[in-house]
Structures are given as C-alpha cells and as structure tokens.
C-alpha cells in the first residue's frame, strides 16, 4: 500500500514538483544493471520502478538486513565502498545516493574515480549542496558527514547537475523544513523545486549525472 501511494505521488504531485525518485526513474530508463554504493537501509531506489537488476554495497550489516527485508536490491555486498571492487564497465549505472558526504574529500574523489570506472553508461551522485552537519545516529557510526560538495566540484568532472528538494534555506538537518508547522514548510519548499532544479547553486541538494562514453 505504501508503494502504491508513492507511485500515485510520483505520477501526479511529483510531475508538478519533481522529487529525487522522479529524476532517478528518468535517468535509469534503459539501464539493465545498477550498482548502489553505500545503499543503507532505505535506498531511494526503493521508490523507483525497477526494470533493472541491482546490487547494494553497504559496510553496516544491520542496514543490509533492513534493506533485504524491504526487498530493495537483488544482491548485497557487505563491504566498505572503497574496498568493494568490480570489473571495469560492469554495471550500466553506478550510484552513490547520500554517500559521498560521509567520506573525507580526498576519499570522495577516489570514490568518483572508482564509480566512473565501474559504470558503462552513467554515474549518479546525490548529496547535499555544500557541507551539511550530521552526527552519527541509529547506532550507525558511518552516518557522520565529513565533507561538503558543490556544483562546481561536479561540473569540473563533466557532470550534469540538477537542484533537488527546493531552495537551500528552506530545509535543514535531516532534510526537515525549517518553517513550522512542517507540513506548511514542506509545501513551501516543494513549490521552489522548479527554481532549484534550474539553478542548482541555490538548491538544498544536488543530483549529479555523468554520461560515460566509450
């Protein structure tokens, strides 16, 4: 029922005020294999209509167990994302959704290099716009944010960058609206999504896509 409601949401509300799952669905169209690095317990791929086989890589075993119970991925690898190794061009798409900000900046650059090697068609990264403080939670020591990334960081590497989740000043920690009540704050933030999409420098979060050429 939850998934059905979200499909309806994607079909109506999100077409007016597009959210992350809408763009992921569009970008992954035609992909047959997807690698989700740092997939966590509740990857956004949960809300994408799957026409592909996916593998989730996650270093925190309890998160894998929750993700398995939700049936998000077809296969899982319990490994540090910088240690997991795959053949060159072995996945159509390689994703890091809410991952790169958990690494020091130098390790994040290594992550991008590895993703660009594993991917046959495209690399997709989703991250806050700039540094967003976050401590550990849910007994997961890997939840702390250690770096911040900008539009310029990704464009310099040949990525297309889209702004996600509205204007940056309207959301804070945990992507929660800063305007109260939160329902009102969410609506106001959603209304600004089209502007953030066109001007990612102003957005709360960034969706960065690199098309891989042979």
Structural key phrases:
7 strands, alpha/beta, 214 residues, globular
Tell me about this structure.
Strand 2, helix 4 and strand 3 form a beta-alpha-beta unit. The protein has one domain (18-161, 205-211): 3-Layer(aba) Sandwich (Rossmann fold), CATH 3.40.50.150. The model has no long low-confidence stretch (mean pLDDT 92). Strands 3-2-1-4-5-7-6 form a 7-stranded mixed sheet. 31% of the residues lie in helices and 23% in strands. The chain has 214 residues and is α/β, with parallel strands linked by helices. The chain starts with a helix and ends with a strand.
Question: How do you describe this structure in short?
Answer:
By secondary structure, this protein is of the alpha/beta class. It has eight helices and seven strands. The protein has a seven-stranded mixed sheet.
Strand content: 15-25%
Instruction: Determine the fraction of residues in helical runs and give it as a percent range.
Output: 25-40%
Low-confidence stretches: none
- CATH architectural type: 3-Layer(aba) Sandwich
CATH superfamily: Vaccinia Virus protein VP39
What Rg do the Cα atoms give? 16 Å
Average predicted confidence as pLDDT: 92
């Amino acid at each position: 029922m939850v998934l059905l409601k979200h499909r309806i949401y994607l079909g109506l509300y999100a077409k007016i005020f597009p959210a992350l799952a809408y763009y992921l669905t569009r970008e992954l169209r035609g992909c047959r294999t997807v690698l989700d690095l740092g997939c966590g317990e509740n990857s956004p791929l949960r809300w994408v209509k799957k026409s592909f086989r996916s593998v989730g890589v996650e270093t925190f075993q309890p998160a894998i167990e929750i993700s398995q119970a939700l049936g998000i991925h077809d296969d899982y690898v319990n490994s540090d994302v910088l240690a997991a190794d795959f053949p060159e061009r072995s996945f159509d798409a390689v994703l890091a959704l809410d991952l790169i900000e958990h690494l020091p900046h130098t390790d994040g650059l290594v992550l991008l290099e590895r993703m660009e090697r594993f991917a046959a068609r495209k690399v997709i990264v989703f991250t806050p716009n700039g540094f967003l403080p976050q401590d550990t939670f849910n007994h997961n020591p890997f939840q702390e944010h250690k770096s911040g990334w900008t539009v310029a960081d990704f464009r310099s590497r040949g990525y297309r960058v889209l702004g996600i989740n509205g204007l940056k000043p309207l959301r804070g920690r945990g992507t929660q609206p800063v305007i109260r009540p939160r329902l009102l704050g969410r609506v106001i933030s959603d209304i600004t999504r089209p502007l953030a999409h066109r001007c990612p420098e102003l957005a709360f979060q960034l969706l960065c896509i690199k098309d891989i050429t042979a």
